[in-house]
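Student: Send me a single protein entry containing the residue sequence and its fold in token form, directly below this note:

Tutor:
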Amino acid sequence: MPLFTSAVLLAAGVSRRMGTLKALLDWQGRPLIVHQIVALREAGAAEVIVVLGHRADELQARIGANRDVYQAGGVRCVVNPDYAEGKTTSIKAGLRAISRPKDDSPGPILLLNVDQPRSAAVIQQVITAHLDGDALITIPTCDGKGGHPIAVSRILYQELLEINEVTQGMRAVTERHRDVTRRVELGAPELLWDVNTPEQYQAALAAIGGDAKREASAR
């Protein structure tokens, strides 16, 4: 029986340091948010919950109109009205929207930010590493540095709903469960990509041999 893996894709932020909406940056010929959704589904996520906030209506329209997303299926958008209060509010909004597996056995929950471009192959490696181990939390690493997405067992679901900015969100959970957290070296540099600034974006594009142009509609 296949495992039901849920993914929470965080895309509620304002993108101040980038100067334009990161979710709409061009990535391999399509908006970054679309790339992330499709990659998560192709990697084996049974559902992708996209958490929106800033310019939510615009992003939801773009997602809904995209053929790649439509073909991928299993995608739902939720709007976090409290996104300005911190990332933990978006994580919790996404968690509240995930499905409770019925026919399939419960798989892990993946947490990924929209500005962390990942390939389906690497995401699949993370899922496999989590399922092959016995840890409650799996953190993929590259050269010893922790990356994303993080895979979390549903056993911790209620605890995740209690995270907040004051207690450092997910960091507090991983510290509290350090003895059941597994760090897995995958050797994939993309695990560390985080495109918060134009310089980081261009560096990531260069790493995949891409063009540093952004979608005109993202400006």
Notes: The chain has eight helices and ten strands. Residues 212-219 have pLDDT under 50 and may be disordered. The two ends are 45 Å apart (CA to CA). The first strand starts at residue 3 and ends at 11.
